[in-house]
């Protein structure tokens, strides 16, 4: 008998005949946050991201300003941008399932990407994409150096448990907390190593 089997045998002998104990899993499912929009904006700024809190009607104009003079990918199903305007590039054709010659050339040439999100978390300043309509494929949000994400106020929840409750675990989920950054052993911060160097969040109220 190996050590593992011996330990398990002792455990079984020790609990033999013991009564069943009901395990109460009273997990916290909601947060106590007075203003989720304000807290989310504060936490996202802590990550060195750029935050705009504006009315929904002003979102298209702000996106047009951000896209001026650039090539910003816009995924299928994104409602706030008119892809016929200068600066906006339809992202269809850049997903991994598309032809490789167009896919990577388009991504490499893009200055950034504009997406929506599935849910956002106030307590952690996290944006979650499930890559549904308006959110693009994962490569579209990781390869370009600049990510502009539009978050509706009603998509912001207080904590992680509430966010998980809104998500489909069968979908590919990308959790974003600020721009891509890492540090070496001397704690020198390097940005843009494994994702966008710049994260810009528009909170639509």
TrEMBL record:
Classification via Gene3D superfamilies: NagB/RpiA/CoA transferase-like
Entry-linked InterPro entries: FTHF_cligase-like_sf, LUD_dom, NagB/RpiA_transferase-like
Domain named LUD: residues: 82-203
Coiled coil start-end: none
Protein's UniProt name: Lactate utilization protein C
Species, as recorded: Nonomuraea spiralis
């Amino acid at each position: 008998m190996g050590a593992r089997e011996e330990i398990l045998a002792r455990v079984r002998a020790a609990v033999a005949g013991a009564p069943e104990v009901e395990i109460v899993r009273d997990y916290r499912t909601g947060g106590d946050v007075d203003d989720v929009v304000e807290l989310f904006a504060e936490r996202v700024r802590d990550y060195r991201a750029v935050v705009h809190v504006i009315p929904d009607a002003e979102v298209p104009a702000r996106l047009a300003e951000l896209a001026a003079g650039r090539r910003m990918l816009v995924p299928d199903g994104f409602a706030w941008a008119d892809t016929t305007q200068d600066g906006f590039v339809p992202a269809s054709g850049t997903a991994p399932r598309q032809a490789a010659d167009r896919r990577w050339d388009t991504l490499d040439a893009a200055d950034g990407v504009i997406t929506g999100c599935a849910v956002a978390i106030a307590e952690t300043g996290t944006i979650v994409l499930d890559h549904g309509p308006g959110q693009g494929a994962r490569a579209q949000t990781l390869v370009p150096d600049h990510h502009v994400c539009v978050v509706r106020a009603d998509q912001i929840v207080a904590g992680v448990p509430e966010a998980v409750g809104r998500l489909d675990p069968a979908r590919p989920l990308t959790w974003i907390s600020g721009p891509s950054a890492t540090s070496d052993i001397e704690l020198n911060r390097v940005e843009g190593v494994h994702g966008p160097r710049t994260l810009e969040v528009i909170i639509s109220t």
